[in-house]
Amino acid sequence: MHKVALLPGDGIGPEITAAAIRVIEAAGVAINWIELEAGQETRKQRGTPLPDESIKTYIECGVGFKGPFAVEMEDAMIAPRWRKEGPGGGPLRSYNSVSNALKMEGGGYAAVRRARNFDGVPAPIQGIDVVIIREISEDIYIAHEYTSGDDTAVALKVITRKASDKVCRFAFEFARTHGRKKVTVVNKANVLKQTDGMFVRTARAVAREYPQIEFEERFVDASCALVVSKPGLLDVAVMPNQYGDIMSDLCSAAAGSLGLGASANYGTEASIFEPVHGTAPDIAGMGIANPVSQILGGVLMLRHLNELKAADAIEQAVKDALRVPDNHTPDLGGNGTTAKLTRAIIDRMARA
Ligand code: NAI
Predict the structure, then answer these.
(1) Position in ligand 1 atom list of the atom nearest CA 330
(2) Using a 6 Å CB cutoff, which residues line ligand 1?
(3) pLDDT at residue 120, rounded to an integer
(4) Domains of the chain, CATH where assigned
(5) Which parts of the chain have pLDDT scores under 50?
(6) pLDDT of residue 88
(7) N or C terminus of the chain: which is more exposed, having fewer CB within 10 Å?
(8) pTM for the predicted model, two decimal places
């Protein structure tokens, strides 16, 4: 039996993780879910949204399944002190969100986020099938910030050759092992010649080791335009952290809804699987959240656990259920509910 750390999250998190667990159980995979304390309620009770023992247990499990967590601008940084050194032997670090803390403490180096159209799902853009591979340990996103006096705020954008090499190598290996033809490095190196320049130069060096895979460079603004104008030109796209955060929401929404996008965050010590979106406070508790993002996060987790048959069965059932407009939740233009779409997915697995 697999042991998985479970963090249901805030807002719609508990609703969609419960749905995803029902689907995973219906696929016949035995998982011992270890539910961890985290989130807004924990912050009220414990003074932190992510107690040290939750991080420790997550690392011990080696695999986590999480919903989205709320993050407010006023929130204090999360400062774990459960070990003497930071992940990988560096200094202890502090984090701007529960999600970032879990990814970084697990030695996170790459997130994989696939955005694609589904048959039967209306979408602003058709023809999307892009895999975004996002560096997750550095860049401006991890918030090395300080103020200088009352009126100036500074954030450091740090890019290292080591982290860039690791994620670019991961992207080419992903392309090779998944039959993908092209890797695009998304960047703004025309302006950020040192930081993004380092990322691009590293990508070029890795690309030379993969002559069978086409390699191209595109600026991030032009890449966003391409998602709308010619999405078929993007295949696997590798990029620094901040651009990955933005482009994965763009691609998911363009392909139909944020409620369809899932994310796998791979780390040297632990890996965690989640939806790409946030807590959707506008629809929390209404029973109408789209559970597909969380369910597809579960599919990515099952592949990581080598439960390939169950992963394939769930993915196929999701596709089949989405073909029927009657199952669609409001984000897809329908009147369906979380429970109805979840039931439709489970029914299709039972019929297969
Ligand atoms: P959001 O992604 O929660 O919502 C944006 C819009 O998409 C909303 O209209 C929402 O209803 C809709 N939406 C998102 N997921 C959906 C689903 N599964 N089904 C149907 N509709 C869905 O973004 P927002 O409002 O900017 O963020 C809310 C909170 O989530 C914030 O506190 C933010 O910091 C946090 N957040 C957490 C993330 C994480 O834990 N990984 C990632 C992104 C945001």
Answers:
(1) 20
(2) 12, 16, 68-71, 99, 258-259, 274, 277-283, 289-290, 293, 331
(3) 96
(4) 1-113+259-352 (3.40.718.10), 124-254 (3.40.718.10)
(5) none
(6) 79
(7) N
(8) 0.96
